[in-house]
Amino acid sequence: MNPHNRRVVAVDLGATSGRVMVAEVGPDTLELTEVHRFPNGAVEVGGSLHWDVLGLHREILTGVRAAAAAGPVHGIGIDSWAVDYGLLDESQQLLGNPHSYRDSRTDGVAAQVLNKVDATELYERTGVQQLPFNTIYQLVAAAGTPALEQAATLLLLPDLLGFWLTGEVGAERTNASTTGLYDVRARTWAPDLADRVGIPSAILPPLRSAGDVVGTLLPDVAAEVGLTTGVPVVAVGSHDTASAVVAVPAGDEPSAYISSGTWSLVGLELDEPVLTEAARAADFTNEGGVDGTVRFLKNVMGLWVLSESLRAWGGVDLAGLLAEAEAAEPLRTVVDINDVSLLPPGTATSSMPTRLAALALAAGEPVPETPAQVARCILDSLALAYRRHVREAAALAGVPIQVVHVVGGGSRNAFLCRLTADACGLPVLAGPAEASALGNVLVQARTLGVDLPDLAAMRALVRSTHELVRYEPRSGLDWDAAESRAFPHHDGVIA
Q: Which pLDDT value is given to residue 10?
């Protein structure tokens, strides 16, 4: 290995799977290898959905051990989904398994909070999109529970997992900014806001930024994985989307990004938040990015809807299904893919295809009857949501868009990328698929001395080391009319 390069470990956790990746990073090198992959998912216990966070810790140790067995490790970074958290007591013991954001305990809680803090004021302070599972609503839902009453510290999931590696307590800003308890202008916690809605602000931990060294491995952890205690854990963009945006291979063209996976995050990278009433009404979020940037974006339900449909059908070949969907009638059935009914996991009595059929029926759309028609409905509806929100973001921020970057697992779905180009009327550049892990290792490498001074340098390295696929928009379908059908309660198409 080149002595100027660094070999670092990225722990990249998603809601359905996790992986541990090893990267060699240098001024001209960006090579990523998966060393451990494992399933993840919420576990229902007593009518509530929880994460098996101790199981995640075990799998992280397994992955780091595999990385250490294959070569030197100069650093470790952890990213995951946002908003979910664990509570520690005064002795720094975990008070129960963290809830999943898909748990129903937050139903109706947002309305309770908005009775105490006006929606406009809440948005002006936090800049956060109104999602029923935001951390602020989860904590209000937990009011009066023994766990919250005994809590001394709140740690978001990547910070909790980092704490078990290092013993150091803190919250990385890109993830803290998703909670609804973070002042997006001041870039610090809003303790007065927490106190007003009945959340004990004392549980909010010290903040740190992506690129800070969290600490070094605890002796017992180092011994467990075969490393020395001097190996640092580096705070990366711990919200996986923040890491993914680092690896968006944008150049000089004004661009939008779609981080496409279980969720799709559709938006722009800006220098300052957009906190206008129009942005609030459009339900856009302003989340922290690496190096003080702002991720101005919309959360879209994403490929979760397709994966839950596949789970309901059992044994359906995805490649064959996508081929059949591409041959099916285009724009036959379109729905608002962000409808709240699609958020919970499917059950025996309420599968995802059943809920999609109910949405279509309620909207006066033809009900999809075959798996191919359901898949086509999902992908057409996703492309329409991408179209709408790319245009909204551009209009709200006053930024002309010339190209759309699609990163994450969805960048491998050629059919969805073609539909996205067609719907947006813009070229789509697809890749890299492993954007969150790449963003993770790039930030680590810079902290550890690799000459990557800024985001532009990191993105140039991604462009020079990874193949991108370009999709040009095609004409022939009436996307305007389809958008009006999918979003009938909105005022036409945003130019």
A: 98
